[in-house]
Amino acid sequence: MNMKYIFNLAIISLSLCIFCNAPHDNPFDPHLSSTIIGAVVDRKGAGIDISKIVIPQLNRETFSNRDGIFKFYTLPDDRLDLKCSHPLYAPESLSCQVGKGEKDSVWFILNGLPLLNNEKIMTYHWVRSWPLEDLYFCKTETGVSDIDGNADIDSLWVWVPALNQRYALTYDPMEKIYTYTIWAESLPGGKLEILCSKPFYFYSWDLMNGADSSGPFYISRIIYPYSKSIFPGGWQDTVPDTFNLIWSKFREGYGTNYYIGIVQIDPTRVVYTYATNSIEDTTHHVSTPISPGNYYWTVAVKDEYGNVSRYKETAFVVRR
User: Fold this and answer.
1) Beta bridge partners of 40
2) Domain of 77: which CATH number?
3) pLDDT at position 32, please?
4) Torsions phi, psi for 188 (to 5 deg)
5) Following DSSP, what letter does each residue of 126-154 receive, concatenated?
6) What's the predicted TM-score (pTM) here?
7) Model confidence over 74-115: pLDDT tens digits?
8) CA separation for the pair 231, 298 (Å, rounded)
9) Does 222 map to a domain?
């Protein structure tokens, strides 16, 4: 057990002793009746403030202070149930017997919850040169935070009850999110459309079996149309080391932005990549010189929900 944990517990224990043993000379002082003085701490022994503690039988409630201490005075001689809750922690409950005129101390040790955030369901449509069939897939992603630390996170899942399917999300260190990709070919009928109007639910668990859930979430749109690359438009098009990319306007009745990618590949590895942030125009100037060679570029449209439709890779040559 680390010294910080022991120190925290010692300080809170001392506080409880002081509260429980303080003298009271006034015979009408409510402290002379049955009393519970308790503490709410995390797994490291630090006090948790603004925790709500309830005694359901008495319809009584209070909140812990900044040191995690709470108090109930003028209690009956009875066995009482106490329930403790906090938005960031799993709830806990306990029972204690307080005799008439007695003071009792209790502890709540709370486990931080793995709280989900920024859940998203996004569809992708990629036009391909080879194979000729368009590629469709759905990307599910979420963030998660645990006040006990990321090492306490055990697993995350997304559940599609209509298909009786549960998918385990994995951590993407580049994007710093948990994600899972559902490929259309893995679905009944091989079509992404089967997921439309079907609810998605996210679940998270930590190592202490704390859990969080959210949903339902739905696919908002599958984008079938796309913008086409215009120039460069194939191996016959040769450009200098800085050049303009031109593509057709996306003319559907909802808002989208454009995203550009450029890649150079040798037989064994990707040797150059280039990507843009959101673009509203249908042209983009590559202002940083790139080395001579053979390249491919793509143009994609993305809507406000993150759904994407991308045109096939188009070849071009940067002249020597």
Assistant:
1) 108
2) 2.60.40.10
3) 52
4) -55, 125
5) E--SSSSSPEEEEEEEEEEEETT-GGGEE
6) 0.82
7) 999 889 999 999 999 999 999 998 887 788 899 999 999 999
8) 11
9) no
